[in-house]
Design goal:
By secondary structure, this protein is mainly alpha-helical. The protein has 2 domains: about 50 residues, Homeodomain-like (Arc Repressor Mutant, subunit A, Orthogonal Bundle), CATH 1.10.10.60; about 120 residues, Tetracycline Repressor, domain 2 (Orthogonal Bundle). Helix content is about 65%, strand content about 0%. The protein is built from 8 helices and no strands. Helix 3 runs antiparallel to helix 4, helix 4 crosses helix 5 and helix 4 runs antiparallel to helix 8. The N and C termini lie far apart (about 60 Å).
């Protein structure tokens, strides 16, 4: 093996990131383990040290992206010192996470069937939202709460999609614009 193909960093994570970029550029069907190795600059056998096959690789990519997304949402709730702003912080973190990681957004929500009621980021989002709204008023029935959760999730999910499009928002003032949009909605 040539010395320039030797890899000494975190190969597994690099394969995931390079794989996401490859899928974004050429499509999921075009990805093979050989092409993944080539795009990462390692031997064709190297990815198999971490993944049994393409399906195992894609499963790991989903887990990796979901874990990073979930961890960002958890941090947003833990870092919020003002309980009345927790939903705002959660929504802002959601949107900015996907702005900073547009490949994650496209990957997660274009090829995966997500069981929303068992999807950890949604469950966290739902639990935080329901708790916040119940603390404001005890007059919420479960149907109304669920509708509000879906409406808020839709808002931040749609906004996440929009911020990944060129020209949709002022990128020089993205955080302030996201805050203004989220503040304009009464939840």
């Amino acid at each position: 093996m040539k010395s320039d193909t030797y890899h000494h960093g975190n190969l597994k994570e690099e394969l995931v990131e390079k794989g996401l970029a490859y899928i974004n550029r050429y499509g999921l069907e075009a990805l093979s383990m050989r092409k993944l190795a080539d795009s990462t600059g390692v031997s064709p056998a190297a990815p198999y040290a971490h993944f049994k096959n393409k399906e195992a690789f894609l499963s790991e990519v989903r887990n990796y992206v979901n874990h990073r997304f979930y961890s960002t949402l958890v941090k947003a709730t833990e870092d919020c010192s003002n309980p009345s702003r927790i939903l705002f912080n959660l929504g802002k973190s959601y949107v900015l996470f996907f702005y900073e990681n547009p490949l994650y957004y496209r990957f997660l929500f274009s090829i995966e069937d997500i069981d929303i009621e068992n999807y950890p980021p949604f469950v966290l989002f739902k639990n935080i939202a329901e708790k916040a709204w119940k603390e404001k008023s005890e007059n919420w029935d479960s149907t109304s709460l669920h509708a509000k959760v879906i409406a808020l999730w839709s808002l931040v999910h749609g906004l996440s999609s929009i911020v990944t499009m060129k020209g949709a928002v002022d990128m020089d003032h993205l955080e302030a614009e996201v805050e203004q949009i989220l503040d304009s909605i009464t939840v």
